[in-house]
Amino acid sequence: MADKKPIIKKNALGRGLGALLQDSPQKGKGQDELIAAPAVGIYEIPLSEIQVNPFQPRTHFDKEALQELSDSIKVQGIIQPITVRKLADGEYQLISGERRFQASKMAGLEKVPAYVRTANDQQMLEMALIENIQRENLNSLEIAHSYQRLLAECNLKQEQLGERVGKNRTTVNNYLRLLKLPPDIQAGLRDNLITMGHARAIINVEDIDKQLDIYKRTIAEELSVRKVEALVKALNEGPEEKPASKIQGLDPVKKYEIGKIQQRLASHFGTKVQLKADGKNKGEIKIPFQSADDLNRILEILDII
């Protein structure tokens, strides 16, 4: 279209996202269906020609924050262009920047500046997820779901995912573990009734009913993360577990060191690890798994598959 001339020549996006948005030929399915995009640059595109992103990982937008962004756009305009892909002449689909897109509509704009890129569905999903993880204030549960979708739908391994989002494998795994919590606790995390620190402590309790009891008590008593961690520790070290008996013949200092190692292993593998040792420095490590997928996840962490 004649009115869509580039207003800026630029090729400097975020590190992770930028690698995905290169204009070199794309690989993967749907390549023959990609619509050729204009040259690299920023184009003024009518809002009426832009469709929303069906792969948008963010499920909730704060109305007050959106209104503040809209008011800012009325005064300052859009400072950071949105990113779209071209579907056909006069038809585009949003890749990233939905908050700016929605706020621009609220501000009454007719056109917005946009990067135009080519991408098939899988590439678009990866772009949208990573852009949101890196640039938006997603809550921890939304990040966890985004990580899960990148693993499942973009065929990434945890190590590759960590490289994409600039996080180590343990951090990625800590987020993914949140998805094992029961729905009520996940909802509380989503609604900011508890923090990720609370959730990470609660998930170390295996019994779901006990998890829910601690969750409800956390909210009712406004417990700090440290207090929840203490509750969980007391519960796990109760008469049923008796972890001290698994570390026989060791002095208190070595028992403490073994206990810390056990905690680090549990955090690394995302499951409760059992570590037994005796005074002769002999013992064993048990790493339980709940399903074939869970086993594959642990094997991947061990770099066996």
From TrEMBL:
Keywords: Chromosome partition, DNA-binding
Protein name (Swiss-Prot/TrEMBL): ParB family chromosome partitioning protein
Classification via PANTHER family: CHROMOSOME-PARTITIONING PROTEIN PARB-RELATED
Keyword Acetylation: no
Keyword DNA-binding carried by entry: yes
Species of origin: Cecembia rubra
Family to which the UniProt record says this protein belongs: Belongs to the ParB family.
Span of domain ParB-like N-terminal: 43-133
GO biological process: chromosome segregation; positive regulation of sporulation resulting in formation of a cellular spore
